[in-house]
Fold:
Amino acid sequence: MNDSLLYPEINEKRSYRMLDGIWKFAFDEEAKGERENWNNGLPGQEYMPVPGSFAEFFTDKKRKNYCGNFWYETDVFIPEKKEGMKQLLRFGSVTHRAKVFCNGILVGEHEGGFLPFVCDITAVVKPNGNNRIVVLGNNELNERTLPCGAVKIKKDGTKLAKPYFDFFNYAGIQRSVWLMEIPETSIKDIDICYRIEQKDAEIRFSVVTEWTGASPKQLCVKLRDEDGKLVKEILLPVDENADAENKSGRTDGTLYVEDAKLWQVLDAHLYTMELFLLSADDTMLDCYRQKLGIRTVTVRDGRIMVNDQPVYLKGYGKHEDFDVLGRTFNWSIAKKDFECMKWTGANCFRTSHYPYAEEWYQFADEEGFLIIDEVPAVGMMRSMHNFVDAGTGKYTYFFETPTVSELLANHIRETGEMIARDKNHPSVIAFSLLNEPETTSEVSREYFEKVFEAARRFDPQQRPLTGALEKNSSPEKCKCFPFMDFICLNRYYGWYISGGEDFDEAEELFCDEMVRWDRVRGGRPIVFTEFGADTIAGLHDLPGTMWSEEYQKEYYEMNFRVMDRFPFVQGELVWNFADFQTGEGIFRVNGNHKGIFTRTREPKSAAFILKERWSRIPDRTA
Ligand code: GCB
Structure:
């Protein structure tokens, strides 16, 4: 990982321009674009919004379900750059993989559809002229990359994505694109850790710098409170020898803050760390302003602690999903979602099943929301309907595949990229490294041991690590929960298991499993990361039958009864915040309807049950 993933910023030394808008677009069914030099310019006259999920726009199935290579192009006038600067393209994400060309020349490649990447275009830019940016994207699924799935080749040769997961395989340039100009000698990465002692706090930081010419000499660090008042200032040397070969240095330091205003659940207070990189003669070479929230996260005595106080997680598993927008980030939808979540009394969400756009985390930092940040490790079970297979007990082998070492390398790389991107958000209280993989075999144990070990190395804050387990990962059979700091369970008692006419059996079965978890959990708290029932808004029935709003209410009442019996349950994230789009099939009615809100965010009746319950459960206890 050589690129700096710091979020773009405009300041004394840095500038950017967003390239969002209408780009030229072309499907490339025969994968002939590279041969035919489309990197120099696309044929045809199709246009596409950037960011956008292309599947949402088309009225015919062929283009909606398109699987394979696709291309984007835009022309950008780039003025002559200032001396000592470099020009970068930053993509918030391209799903699932991309090659980027500038003026026909390959400037970068990236695998993984939910994390940002940066391409240095300095050497190929035509200054004071038009520059052509072309992106070759691809949305095929396989078992070597995340998330997992397959591609079916139809008789006519067209490809069809076959996800091993339950959300629509939206693709394209789904997040913003920035053209950035930053100094060649620059701040590359920032690690921040906290220690809190009574009213005071210690902020330990480590700043990585890189340079081309003369090395930077000093780093000036200023801390400002939320009113902009200067709280602390220090000047430190840059250790140029930290990685002299790569012209990369490091500065470690500590700021002591008296009477620190802590970042608390639903009571956020953010400081700003201003970093100024200086030359030997005190010229400012680069600067960066990093927001931070002073808070610690630990798991102790079976509790999840923020600032040494137990918090109970209330909230949702979500998706980046909305009508027409597909998986595109939109500030207004995010605002609406936070308002709906707060209205129900929630304090937490999981970024199921992939890292969301960075703006979600910025918003959560400001709102005091807690995030379980999840890597796109979903579909690691060879099953199109793992939600159904989960209950059957059948062995859904996965990690025996000969390509598993490639998958593992990608899993570790993406975990590293996610943590590098998100490590300084106070809202991120844990990383989830898996969703419902096969975990009962020795090979799965060996696999996940390596993933967890790598994640612990990557996170400077040593946050709790976890992962969401499905029903086959039972207390007796799961070999991977011992790697977790708290155990996350996805359970559907009363829906996939003992649903409908068998509902009366569900509660007992659920309780029985909880008793068995208590025997093996070894003091770890348990958080429910999924439980829910498909519900068609407006469908009413007495007595409540499956799919009706009454059934969803009864379902939640029963589930909460069970959870309340077991004090080691330390969180409940219902599935899902809102109805969302999936592939077509006999289990889905134009998408998954387990939302508490509809896809357009109208509340179903169960929303009022959550609101009533969560307003009674305190966010933190003494
Ligand atoms: C699960 C999956 C989630 C599905 C959900 C469901 O276990 O983790 O992606 O959407 O079940 O609704 O079936």
Remarks:
- Residues 165-166, 353, 387, 435-436, 470, 490, 530, 575, 592, 594 surround GCB (CB under 6 Å).
- The first helix runs from residue 61 to 64.
- The chain has nine helices and 31 strands.
- The two ends are 41 Å apart (CA to CA).
